[in-house]
Amino acid sequence: FICVVLTLAHWQACAWFLTHAVQKSAFAEKASDATTFHTHAEDVATWVDALAEAQGTAPETLDDASRFAKYAACVYWATTTMTTIGYGDIVPVNAVERAVVIVAQLIGSCVFLYGLTQVTALVADNDSGDVEFQRVLDDANTYFEKRSVPTSMRQKVREQSALRAQRVPARNLVGAREHHALARRQRARSRGAHHRVVAAALP
């Protein structure tokens, strides 16, 4: 799961900086002279420009920084987006970037929801032995009440059941319970057959 999260963070970081680079490149091709550039500069402001203004480093932006600084900033954004923390220092400033953020949030939430369900299933599987043991005790208590078993005998049966549950792995409790039930039925059939033989042998 950790590998999936790290891989997803890397992909989203690359997509986030690619969104900025594509917008700047597309505008550079359209801007043929200085007048056009100054007239439409605000139309292509990206998250990199907003980050530089917020940090007070303009006109120097993340484009002037090292590759490591660019990657660290993008991975930082991807991580805070997937975990829904969102510190608010790196934000989308146009429709394209908002669309990218929406997709990143949806994918990130799905990944973390999948991880949460897997952890929940793992915990539930580990507790299955306890659940089965409690079910066995409930059945035993029902039998005790029906047969009016003395309290001392009930306590002994509970203690023996607890010791047996500790020796039997949790995943085998169900199988052990079925095995004991089958053994009881076989003994009952054997006793019935024995009684029939004895009855037939009597004059």
What does this structure look like?
The protein is mainly alpha-helical and 203 residues long. Helix content is 78%, strand content 0%. The chain has eight helices and no strands. Helix 1 packs antiparallel against helix 5. The radius of gyration is 35 Å and the shape is rod-shaped. Residues 36-42 and 193-203 have low confidence and may be disordered.
SS element count, helices: 8
Distance between the amino and carboxyl termini: 76 Å
Helix/strand order, N-terminal first: HHHHHHHH
Estimate the helix proportion, in percent: over 70%
Radius of gyration: 35 Å
Net shape: rod-shaped
Largest sheet: none
- Overall pLDDT score: 76
| DSSP, total strands | 0
Weakly predicted, low-confidence segments: 36-42, 193-203
* Multimer state: single chain
Structural class: mainly alpha
**Percentage of β-strand residues:** under 5%
Summarize the structure.
This protein is mainly alpha-helical. The chain is 78% helix and 0% strand.
Q: Which features does this protein show?
A:
203 residues; mainly alpha; 0% strand; rod-shaped; disordered C terminus
Give the secondary structure arrangement, pairings included.
Elements: H1 2-30, H2 34-40, H3 47-55, H4 67-82, H5 95-126, H6 128-147, H7 151-167, H8 173-201
Helix pairs in contact: 1-4, 1-5, 6-7
